[in-house]
Amino acid sequence: MRLLTRKPVVVLLAVAAGIVLLAAGRADWVTGTVDGVAGPVRAAAVGTEAAPGLAGLALVAMAASVAATTSGRVARWISLAVLGAVGAGVIALALRAVVDAPDVLGSVAATHSGATGTLEATGSATAWPWIAVVAAGLLLLACVGGILGGRRWGGLGRRYERPGGDGDGGQVGGARGERVDSDWDRVTLGDDPSVD
To answer: Within the chain, what is the greatest distance between any pair of CA atoms?
Structure first.
């Protein structure tokens, strides 16, 4: 199935992680009023305040996405497990902002005013927590695609490995098949290979 190949999974992972990072930005997640000294005051909590740690989870998702699509089999499974945990974490943080919107807003308002604890507040979530939940769902969907299709993926391949990467001390094959130092290693040793 074409949807389980590397390219669609990579695109879905990148889009989902990007949306989570965008949602964690400066957009208002919770809006409402907080009871202040002079009466109710309009207040808002942005994504980084309403769901602390969301930006970090988005960055972990991006790194795990790269690792899942470029590494070998064992590292791919570990990365996919991390992506599953990140997706679940994003959903938990976003749903907390939806379910406990007044408490989240009261806590953020208390922090802004320099107080500890939570101020009395009324508030509701905007669309951003739901956007984060949808993005986490896409992340989990891509994770499932990686689990189902990843068995057929290879790593980056030998073309990205440095010559002599098999523990041969940087030696490469010479004209007659013998092992000689690479030009890079010769320059490191002070020998100029362009003189030959």
So the answer is: 89
Strands 179-181 and 171-173: antiparallel
Handedness of CA 131, 53, 22, 145 (dihedral sign): negative
Alpha carbon distance 159, 144 (integer Å)? 28
- Residue 159's identity, in one-letter code, is R
Task: Name 49's Cβ contacts closer than 8 Å, sequence gap at least 6.
Answer: 29, 108, 111
Q: How far apart are CA 3 and CA 23, in angstroms?
A: 26
Closest CA to 19 of 97, 87, 67, 76: 87
Alpha carbons within 13 A on the beta-carbon side of 73:
4
Query: Tens of pLDDT along 58-113?
Result: 899 888 888 887 877 888 889 889 999 999 999 999 999 999 888 888 888 888 87
pTM of the model: 0.71
Which pair of tokens denotes residue 27? Answer: 């957009």
Mean pLDDT of the chain: 80
Q: Where in 37-152 does DSSP place strands (E)?
A: 39-46, 121-125
- The 10s digit of each residue's pLDDT in 17-30 is 889 888 888 788 99
Residue ranges in the chain assigned as alpha helix (H): 6-23, 47-50, 54-70, 73-99, 101-113, 128-149, 183-188
- When mean pLDDT is compared across 43-47, 104-108, 188-192, the lowest value belongs to 188-192
Beta strands in the chain (DSSP E): 28-36, 39-46, 121-125, 171-173, 179-181
